[in-house]
Amino acid sequence: MSSSPMTAQAGRSGARAKGSEAPAAPEPNTPPRPPRRVGRWVLAIGTVMVILLVVALIGGTLPKLRREREVNAAAAEAAATPPRVPVAIVKRMVPEAQRVLPGTSLPLLEASMYARTTGYVKQRLVDIGDRVHEGQLLAEISAPDVDAQLAQAQADLAQAKANLPLTEANAELAKITLKRYIDAGPGTGVTLLQIDQQRATVKTTAAQVEATKASIQVYEATVQRFTVLQGFQKIIAPFPGVITARNIDPGDLISADTPSTTKQLFHLMRTDILRVFVNVPQVFATGIKVGQDAFIYRREHLEKQYPGKVVRTANALDPNTRTLLTEVDVPNPNDDLRPGMYLQVKFVFARQTAPILIPGPALVVTSAGQQQVAVLDDQHRVHYRPVQLGRDFGAEIEVLSGLSVGETIAVHPGDALAEGTVVSPVTVPAK
After folding, report:
1. Which of 177, 248, 311, 329 has the fewest C-beta atoms lying within 10 Å of its C-beta?
2. Are 314 and 324 in contact, with CB atoms under 8 Å apart?
3. Is residue 176 included in any domain, yes or no?
């Protein structure tokens, strides 16, 4: 039996309804629907981004607001707080002051040695750098002509001494003969003429004795002169020291007594004690006393100082430089210092009355030229006080009057710090 199409379709639908396990076939030309998980992920990401954005806005705004509140609070506190001003305490200068001045070192003794006899250098026994003691032979000069002249003078002296007894004997004989003539008297074979002649002979022989004695003295002086010249043939060290110059060699011709035209034979310096000369400025000149201590050192070796003493001063200032020439002697047994060095000399001055000192920046000079200092009272109020200044040491200034030791003064007060301003002091550390 045949059935209609509608009936057949209804039957298929009912059969699908009854069989729930079989999936429904997609209709032709219909696109697949997206899964529900994709939509959920998109929603979650969007929510997270919104939350992060809100957190970022809150995190950026809150610190800014906090900083604004802190700045406003600090500004309000600064407006209500007195200005902070660096202060210092007025003090006195230390009882002992030190001043370092440049000096030049010279040997305690030095000598330029020239020849006093003409001849040739026979031998030279020392050279530069050699240390010698007093009386040491340095060189020897050969002068045969001086030796010959000494020998002749000695022979003349011997001859004069030999003639002296002869002349004395003649004088004695003349006296005896005259006495006999006088005792015999005229008319006994002796005439008055003979007696007068004998008196003259007595005087002549006496004069010959005196002339012979004078000749002896002349010859002795001549011998002494040539003996001294012969002694000059040996160059002797006059004091202990070191040879710093030598200008001769064996065989050189030496001319005597010509220091202006010839070179010195040797130059000798005594260096175990050095003399350091310092030109002390007028401001420190009155503090220099003979016997006071001083310390000498080289600028390149500040850590090593050598004690010395002031031994003498010129006692008058040079009118051209207004300085006092001062000599400081320093022992130098190990030759650590050398003559001619540029040295530093540190003097220690003892003050009977130490002056008051203030920092240099504490001084205020008004438009009228008045010198003032800002002094703080017990309530930290500023009061400007005129002062009289002394010496300016750069970082510090000496005050003669107007301040007392222990007072608090403002450092760098500035133009904005008016009279009577209450300030908050900040102590400047001492240097």
Report:
1. 311
2. yes
3. yes
Q: Which residues of 94-127 are buried (b: 16+ CB within 10 A; e: fewer)?
A: eeeeebebebebbbbbebebbbebbbebeebebe
- On whether the CB atoms of residues 105 and 274 are closer than 8 A, the answer is yes
Encoded amino acid at 164, one letter: L
Clarify whether residues 196 and 321 are in a common domain. Answer: no
Q: List the alpha helices (DSSP H) in 232-307.
A: 282-285
Strands 382-386 and 241-246 turn out to be unpaired
Indicate the length of the chain as a whole number. 431
Instruction: Judge contact between 268 and 132, C-beta under 8 A.
Output: yes
Q: Which of 252, 12, 26 is nearest to 118 (CA)?
A: 252
Judged on CB neighbours under 10 Å (0-12, 13-18, 19+), 344 is middle
- The reported pLDDT for the residue numbered 304 is 92
DSSP class of 270: E
- Show the tokens assigned to 236: 């002797």
189 assigned to some structural domain:
yes
The mean pLDDT values, 10 residues at a time, for the chain of 431 residues are 40 42 49 60 79 74 78 69 83 76 95 90 94 95 90 92 89 86 73 82 90 92 90 93 94 84 89 95 88 93 92 94 95 93 88 76 84 88 88 82 87 79 78 56
